[in-house]
Specification:
Chain A is mainly beta. Helices cover 0% and strands 55% of the residues of chain A. Chain A is globular, with a radius of gyration of 13 Å. The chains are: A mainly beta, B mainly beta. At the A-B interface, β4 and β5 of A face β5, β9 and β10 of B.
Chain lengths: 110, 113
């Protein structure tokens, strides 16, 4: 079983839709949770970082962590065509070693 | 804005040839990682450095891959000989040693023909 599971998609939504991206994990020691956005042929860029459980909001993006269910989510409100990218979740127990999901490819149609 | 620099951006090489990638971390970032990302998959760790020392190279195919970080700043990753299955994006990421998120470079896309 992989440490982090992520649905690869692709996920196609109309512009303005609310997008929900999710990851599950198996290691209860994970306490640092990150979402990266990766455009085609580029390196991942950090979007959101959350410590332990709870929600964090940054503009149109909201990250949620439910440690009891070992489940994390990224919500994108009012999605834009420029949000079209692959979204990677990443986790760490100690900020020393990071475990990545396989990425979900999102396409926002104008 | 400080960023992780990687070069070259693209590399095409014939199988059995040697190839090298270079990474210059953000100033002050003591921890440096090399990841390999196959198309459609998430990054997989190859090697982790803390300053000039290797912390984790358990996933590095040591028969053909080598990595070094002399002086604890920039780093090189070498493959010799390259195989067709090595075609992938090679990503460098760095962070400060005191628990902050990792920042990635733009990667080197390797194609072995």
């Amino acid at each position: 079983q992989k440490e982090v599971e992520q649905d690869p998609g692709p996920l196609s939504v109309p512009e303005g839709a609310i997008v929900s991206l999710n990851c599950t994990y198996s290691n209860s020691a994970f306490q640092y949770f990150m979402w990266y956005r990766q455009y085609s042929r580029k390196g991942p860029e950090l979007l959101m970082y959350t410590y332990s459980s709870g929600n964090k909001e940054d503009g149109r993006f909201t990250a949620q962590v439910d440690k009891s269910s070992k489940y994390i989510s990224l919500f994108i409100r009012d999605s834009q065509p420029s949000d079209s990218a692959t979204y990677l979740c990443a986790m760490s127990a100690d900020f020393n070693k990071f475990y990545f999901g396989s990425g979900t490819k999102l396409n926002v149609k104008p | 804005e400080a960023e992780v620099a990687q070069s070259p951006r693209y590399k095409i090489t014939e199988k059995s040839q040697a190839v090298a990638f270079w990474c210059d971390p953000i100033s002050g970032h003591a921890t440096l990682y090399w990841y390999r990302q196959i198309l459609g998959q998430g990054p997989e760790l190859l090697v982790q450095f803390q300053d000039e020392s290797v912390v984790d190279d358990s996933q590095l195919p040591k028969d053909r891959f080598s990595a070094e970080r002399l002086k604890g700043v920039d780093s090189t990753l070498k493959i010799q000989p390259a195989e067709l299955g090595d075609s992938a994006m090679y990503l460098c990421a760095t962070h400060r040693s005191t628990g902050t998120e990792a920042f990635f470079g733009q990667g080197t896309r390797l194609t072995v023909v």
